[in-house]
Amino acid sequence: MNTPLIMKETLGEKEIELEDLKKAIKKAKNEYGIGGIVTGAVESVYQASRVQKICNELKLECFNPLWQKDQFELLEDLIKNNFKVIIVGVFAYPLGKDFLGRKIDKKFVLEIKELNNKLGINPAGEGGEFETYVLNCPLFIRELKIKGFKDFGERNSWRRELEIT
């Protein structure tokens, strides 16, 4: 996207990760003069409210354009708008290692719709069933390419670590 990237490591501990996020957002505000944050929050009240709280503390706007959007419509919009999104983590039955690397396309949407009807799998992975990675979208100046990857996990808990160029 040809914009600066601020990376901040965190151990993922419930309250400490929020302080880590706040430090990264504060750095962006101070170094780049940002006026707000755009989140990808779809359904999680926890996620949206926590980012909103940080933004309030730092006097920044918080915009959640996907909030409460129909999740099948969200998937269709990804396809329609030429997003290239792949699955990089699965954490719920019946999703297995074979889902890793799958592109979100019409076939995926049909399959996830069936899994949603049968087993309650959240279509956007909002229940933690799967994680995604965006390789290309209209905002990118070039597509990210997978140089290599490593899969690790067992049963219905798999993650794909990507090497990107």
Describe, in plain words, how this protein is organized in 3D.
The protein is α+β, with helices and mostly antiparallel strands and 165 residues long. It folds into 2 domains: 16-63, no CATH class; 71-164, putative n-type atp pyrophosphatase, domain 2 (Alpha-Beta Complex). The protein contains 4 helices and 6 strands, in the order H-E-H-E-H-E-H-E-E-E. The protein has helices spanning 16-32, 45-57, 71-80, 106-119, and strands at 36-38, 61-63, 84-90, 130-136, 146-154, 157-164. The strands form 2 sheets. It has a 4-stranded antiparallel β-sheet with strand order 4-3-6-5, with no helix packed on it. A hairpin with a 2-residue loop joins strand 5 and strand 6 (157-164). Helix 1 (16-32) crosses helix 2. The longest helix has 17 residues, at 16-32.
Q: How helical, in percent, are the residues?
A: 25-40%
Radius of gyration over alpha carbons?
A: 17 Å
Number of helices: 4
Structural class: alpha+beta
Please mark out the parts with pLDDT under 50 across 5 or more consecutive residues, or reply none. Answer: none
- H/E element string? HEHEHEHEEE
Approximately how much beta-strand content do the residues carry? 15-25%
Whole-number mean pLDDT = 93
Just give the CATH class of the largest domain.
Alpha Beta
Strand order of the largest sheet: 4-3-6-5
What's the CATH H-level homologous superfamily of the largest domain? putative n-type atp pyrophosphatase, domain 2
Give the oligomer, counting copies of the same chain as homo and different chains as hetero. Answer: single chain
Number-wise, the strands total: 6
Return the domain count. 2
Q: Could you say what the CATH architecture of the largest domain is?
A: Alpha-Beta Complex
Main beta sheet, described? 4 strands, antiparallel
Instruction: Find the CATH topology of the largest domain.
Output: putative n-type atp pyrophosphatase, domain 2
Inertia-based shape: globular
Give the N-terminus to C-terminus distance in angstroms.
14 Å
